Amino acid sequence: MKKNRLIPIVLLKDGWIVQSKNFSQYQNLGNPVATVKRLSEWASDEIIFLDISRGDKYDTKRNDQGYKNRGSFLDIIKDVSDIAFMPITVGGKIRTIKDIEDRLLSGADKICLNSMAIEDISFINQASKEFGSQCIVISIDAKKNLDNYLVYSKGGRHMTNFTPVEFSKIVEDNGAGEILINSIDRDGFGGGYDISLIEKVVESVSIPTIACGGVGEWNHFSEALEKTNVDAVAAANIFHYIDQSVYLAKKYLYESGFNVRKPDLIKI
Amino acid sequence: MNAKYCKKCVYPISAVNLNIDDEGICSACKTAEKFEELSDDFWNQRKEKFEEIIQPYLNKNESNYDCLIPVSGGKDSFYQAHLIAKEYGLKPLLMTYHGNNYLPEGDHNRDLMRHAFDADHIVWGPSVDTLKKLNKITFKMMGDMNWQNHCGIKTAPIQIATKFNIPLIIWGETDWDISGMYSPDDFVEFSARVRHEHDLRGYEWYDMLKHGLKEKDMMWAKYPSDEEILEVGVRGIYIGNFFKWDPNKQTKIIMENYDWKPSEKPFERTYRRFSNLDDRYENGIHDLLKFVKFGYGRASDHASKDIRTGYMAREEGVEMVRKYDSVVSSDLYYWLDYVGMKENEFWSIADTFRDPRVWWIDDGKWYKNNIWGGASSYGNVHLDDSGIENFSKKNRKY
């Protein structure tokens, strides 16, 4: 039986790895290479690396460190993929087929689309024809409006008329290989996943779904794996708070009897 | 070249690791606001949570230390030891990394700990010959002579904890507050990444070997592997996440209860007298180099903190910045003598680290913008022609 994956999401803003709260407050954590190296050493199953910069200036303002201060996103992906022993999904600011090609050539294994998928659904089709649907992950940011969930684009700043279920079906029909479903309301609050949102999306499609948004303790991963048929569980901030985080989370799930890979450490 | 400053404190946006939001408030102020908003009730709950966390380590332990506390003897670690050994009555192992930079008051305070607390104390310091070499190497490499201190403080205790089988390390202040990296609800613990990246600037002991040091010289600088750490279950928690951190108040407590001494002489680069007695350069030329690199210094740090905790008004903070940030302190001459370097060489190396986002050259002098408005010159340029060319090349990039 296919294993459930545990996936750290790494957010890059203006050259920094950041943590994000409610899609609005950001805190600089450090250099992309230092972060990804640790996630790699803890044998993460995959990572999702998202560029959430609004501008195109990448600069950690540090020239006195033993790291390169890279000025371009593609160079950052190259650095990061050099030390990543797991597949990397790269997302953020993808507008054209050439953007996808550039990211794959720089070391990305899969591509994650968000705003562009909403603006032009045929782009998903085009991309999956060109690169194969297994390569195309659609990230869906959902927010609760009264009783209904709606899909947002542009980093949560723009509301659409799609419900997550409608939109999930549309992206599946157009050749998406995987869905990353994130709850804007839960982002960075650590209170647990929005289980009903995840369940709705998982049940509406047959492609794999990754749950995201709200993990504050390891048993939030268990909750999603227990209560829904989600294929993978992801989180961002929590993996930055303690050492050996991914290893310890996986150990927790493994020892609780979940169908995940055995916790491991990799020497890099 | 428009220097921008946080609207609340006195930090420039060039401050290390700082993020400034759309309203012009820096992430350090945002984090501090979150801490300030917290009620007594909140801190009582936190205290309970702390006791919950340490409980398992105490119950299973009859024949070993209860925890390890990395201490310099400074105000923070003295207070940590007070809290753990006196108030909680635990038996900690105190562990000091000795980088040979102590001021006389700092020596006194460090050696006082074993008298003040019922605790054993290990002091571990590299050979002074190694230290002198490292001072010089890392000054040239990263513009910081104190790399050895940052490395030792964040390495030696973890090594001792794994060797002595002590799973719980108790650190003090949540040191990322300085740039607001994390929030109180994150319950951040010590991590090898933050150590490697922020304390050690991305360099490790092996990067020093090509400069004439041997592996044998650097034993204290080797960080244990994940396997070794997981084997013992070593984790480092921060008291600052569980108890309201107020250095002014804590200093008062340790001065009233013990013979802890602040600096007898005022520092040249800041107005606070109770910080950094364990290291003569931290408030001196180590910090002067921060001014050289990023255009702000310890007085900016201290004033920003004191503004956030309500001990100082912003205007007063600006005055402190004006008065102290650019002072060339006399420990420079102590250090030049210690490592055997000429002053001119010092400045020509220091100038290679000037941040072009902050500094510009006019008529052979370094200029930068001031928080009180306008720009001033801050000394002569010591770069040769190729150094100046390198600086302008970097300048064009930003």
CATH class of chain A, anyone? Answer: Alpha Beta
Mean pLDDT of chain A: 95
Radius of gyration of chain A: 17 Å
CATH topology descriptor of chain A? TIM Barrel
Molecular shape of chain B: globular
The CATH C-level class name of the largest domain in chain B = Alpha Beta
User: From the coordinates shown, what is the CATH architecture of chain A?
Assistant: Alpha-Beta Barrel
Return the domain count of chain A.
1
Poorly predicted sequence stretches spanning 5 or more consecutive residues of chain A: none
Percent of residues in helices of chain A comes to 25-40%
Instruction: Report the biggest beta sheet of chain A as strand number plus sense, adding barrel if it closes.
Output: 8 strands, parallel, barrel
Give a count of the beta strands of chain B, DSSP E runs of length 2 or more: 8
Strand order of the largest sheet of chain A: 1-4-5-6-7-10-11-12
What's the average pLDDT of chain B? 91
* Strand content range of chain A: 15-25%
Distance between the termini of chain B: 9 Å
Topology as H/E string of chain A? EEEHEHEHEHHEEEHEHEHEH
CATH architecture of the largest domain in chain B: 3-Layer(aba) Sandwich
Biggest sheet: strand arrangement of chain B: 1-2-3
Broad structural category of chain A: alpha/beta
* Tally of alpha and pi helices of chain B: 16
